[in-house]
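User: My collaborator sent over this chain with a note saying "see what the structure looks like." That's all I know about it. Can you take a look?
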Amino acid sequence: MSLDALAIDVSAAAPVTLLHPKTRQPIRDEAGKEAFISVVSLDSPDVQKVQKAAMNKRLKMRGRVTLTADELEAERAETLVAATKAWHLVTTDGKALDVPLTDAAARTIYTDPRFAWIKEQVSEALDDRATFL
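Assistant: Without extra context I'll predict from the sequence alone. Here is the result:
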């Protein structure tokens, strides 16, 4: 038996079901389809590329080792953007949204405080390796 038996497919996207911020129940559209955002693992090549770019930027800062909260939040948002591979967005009152997944749209979801409830759920799932098993 090889070590491959221990491996996780880090490039396989896992759906994160979006829960209503008040009821904590899955949000569903008119047809009953759950709202979701599919993400790949923090270990995936796409996410690693973004995270390594952020680390290299820090290393180039040399004398300035202090990062601002805004810089850390921006780095996390870029990680979430890189991890996001698909979505089905639904309003909290059940209307499906026809918003194509683009980096700009994902960045809005992950940086606009009005969508913090979504960012929190996706971020929590992304940080839990069990999401990808």
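A starting point for your reply to your collaborator: The helical segments are 45-60, 69-83, 103-111, 116-126.
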